[in-house]
Amino acid sequence: MTDPVTAGLVIIGDEILSGRTQDTNTATIAAWLGDRGIQLREVRVVPDVEAEIVAAVNGLRGRYTYLFTTGGIGPTHDDITAASVAAAFGLPFGRHAEAEARLRAHYGDETLLTPARLSMADMPAGAVLIENPVSGAPGFQIDNVFVMAGVPKIMRAMLDSLEPRLTGGAPVLARTVTCVGKGEGDIAATLEAVLAAHPRIGIGSYPYFRAGGSGVSLVLRGTDEPALAAAAADLADRLRALGADSAVVAISPRSE
Amino acid sequence: MTDPVTAGLVIIGDEILSGRTQDTNTATIAAWLGDRGIQLREVRVVPDVEAEIVAAVNGLRGRYTYLFTTGGIGPTHDDITAASVAAAFGLPFGRHAEAEARLRAHYGDETLLTPARLSMADMPAGAVLIENPVSGAPGFQIDNVFVMAGVPKIMRAMLDSLEPRLTGGAPVLARTVTCVGKGEGDIAATLEAVLAAHPRIGIGSYPYFRAGGSGVSLVLRGTDEPALAAAAADLADRLRALGADSAVVAISPRSE
Questions:
Q1: Cβ contact (<8 Å) for A207 and B74?
Q2: ipTM of the complex model
Q3: pLDDT band at residue B2 under the 50/70/90 scheme
Q4: H or E element at residue B79
Q5: Same domain for A120 and A236?
Q6: Residue A188: which of B40, B77, B192 has the nearest Cβ?
Q7: Which of B26, B76, B135 would you mutate first to test chain A, the one with the most A CBs within 10 A?
Q8: What digits encode the pLDDT tens for the residues A105-128?
Q9: Do B221 and B252 form a contact (C-beta atoms < 8 A)?
Q10: In terms of domains, do A133 and A223 share one?
Q11: Can you give the CATH number for the domain in which A213 is found?
Q12: One domain for residues A34 and A124
């Protein structure tokens, strides 16, 4: 077993903390990383305040293989992520020539390239750009920290462009076993028995309550496909023996 | 001006970090707190690992007026929040008599009250219960930390039941000014001028890209209603003078 490849994520923006905006970037990034064998281990949501961004970036970048940030790289007064990341690393902050060239190419007309838009080319010294095929202004990488836009469509495009720069580990595979007719409290001992019998497998237990019936989704995870299949079949058998309706319903190539 | 009333939030669960489950509790809690004049300042999402839960709880509970947690209080092996919160406070962990009584009343039939379900009555010593009108098993409060369920419907019911225990501050009011026809980079200087002219108001700038057109939503926030109204009108006027279509479109009693 090699060491797992891990990641942290810092979501930057008052709009998430006020409840105005529903964050979806966490789920997108988590699934994208999981597909590549990179385990998201921690997320922090912080406001547009430099000291808070610095504390989150410096608190996480040493703990995980990679650290991603989203938000705060636009042209307005509340976009302080780039300056804050420079402060976190103790790096000079200023105009990035290649970023400026990309902005000039994107906007074309000089009158559109306002001082505010040009300020999106201000980055920590030594930043490596992250392409933005949607709206021109690039993100950037410093060391193991990847600074991306907050708008989901732009964030996703930036993330896709990072694929060649990231080294993943063994993908975590998942199978979901459904359980209907028995609740979590009825099957808890069964789950522990399956965990004991299949030590390389983890199980997450997620009750659901829906129109049409409630039940429990049991998500088995592991990196070894035959071991995972055996554990899922064993669990479904044991649940049926308890009197539940149970089946292995989802076989996913990605982390669930 | 009195000190603001603040809150932190710890979201506990591998299912959020794997991307399997889209968290919605953050937005619900943020808006609910904002309505009551309590400002959510930081969120951490951590896995079902005791050391991580302890670190997050102890890292945040001293920084904010209140700390909320969601997730990990069910009956299965991955529900370790209650034991972890006891560890964070250095408190004994064991059966809570009133919680046990509520579970017995909820399940009625002794055969349904399995050892796993009964384990949901294990809490840190001195815990004050949080009612669960949906599924019986209570949450709990220790000091300024409120431990709630992760299932959104149950979490919301627990949150509503907390209203009498929380003391809010001055609610943060919000108005949204729309801007169509000019982008963030065209209006950044105008936003700074409005901030300078209305020092008690904050402005968040949120570009949107939708079928039917893109634009910028400008969310003004403050606790003084006349000052907020004046700033919103001033901003809309200045944007129209720049050639944008602009209007004050949303007047909200709650933080946005």
A1: yes
A2: 0.92
A3: low
A4: none
A5: no
A6: B77
A7: B76
A8: 999 878 889 999 999 999 999 999
A9: no
A10: no
A11: 3.30.70.260
A12: yes
